[in-house]
What we know:
By secondary structure, the chain is an all-alpha fold. It has 25 helices and two strands. The chain has helices spanning 2-17, 30-59, 62-67, 72-85, 89-97, 101-106, 113-127, 131-139, 143-152, 156-170, 174-182, 185-193, 198-214, 218-224, 227-234, 240-255, 261-266, 269-283, 287-292, 294-308, 313-316, 334-338, 342-349, 351-354, 359-366; strands at 26-27, 370-371.
Amino acid sequence: MAGDGMKWDGLLKWSLAHSDGTQPPRNLSEEDRRWFMEAMQAQSVDVVKRMKEITMVMRTPEDVLESQGITPADIQDMLDELQEHVESIDMANDLHSIGGLVPLLGYLKNSNAGIRAKAADVVTTVVQNNPRSQQLVMEASGLEPLISNFSLDSDVNVRTKALGAISSLIRNNKPGIAAFRLANGYAALRDALGSENVRFQRKALNLIQYLLRENNADCSIVTELGFPRLMMHLASSDDTGVREAALGGLLELARDRTSGGSTTLAEEDKLKQVLKERIESISSMSTDDLGAAREERELLDTLWSACYNEPSSLRERGLVVLPGEDTPQLPPDVAGKIFEPPLRAWAAANPSESTSGSNASQEKKQQSPLLLGPAPGNSST
């Protein structure tokens, strides 16, 4: 895309020339606005063209690519580029229309572990906060190879990336959650908690917490599968993220009123022992470490209260809320942070701005875009 560089160089130089902060924002002239939109439209067309080229490569049989000297590293680089393009929701949805989604999902079954992992990474980006692409991936039977890789792959990185893609695919997607349950997904999550890879454990715990928050009825399932004991063990992990996610999962179980979750947990001597040990560890922390452990402090206190109907000793010692900290309103949503990438979260919160044909979108298109500084050819007064 050598020719595109000239367009972007021009846009960059122009933007820099008129955004030095010395002038107030001004509307573009009609001529400059037209030039700007044409340049942006030309780039969009080129991105689609490039995605079509990548799709052609993905459709090419593996042995043919090898005969042409294409290596697995080359394929991973190509998938890296594709991932950048599908950061845009529009481009992510276009991937299916140009025929690229199915061969991308095919790469989940590639013989090379690096390609399988990278393909799952791209799928994650495609479906994040994107109901349309979630539906398209489900219709293309994309959940099946992801669950297979998550459950059975010999490479822990492939398993971790597949879990990340599953998490993004089924978030706010009721058919996806139902399919995950039917595919014995909870059993695979239980196995993941027994892994020695902390990143894999964190992702599994965060998905468990999200699923329990979405449907309290699943608390009975995870209890029967032995999750509470596993989460109690992980609540003493050396990894902060694992500890917080494990405590968050236990808190969801404690809040379950349908199966008496708090009573069941309260009867576990191991839980009380774990919580006491964590409370003592926090009580001996320095001021800086206490600040970093704020979420864990809140989780410990809330979980203790839910199970034993009394404040924890952290509260008695004044360590739940330190001087200068706001009083917590709700326990922290540890899992939510994992599933809310900024770009897609913004798009999900502003559907009218990303939906063509909506009144809000049309009104925004009619407004002249603003840049910092005067438009070219206009003198400041």
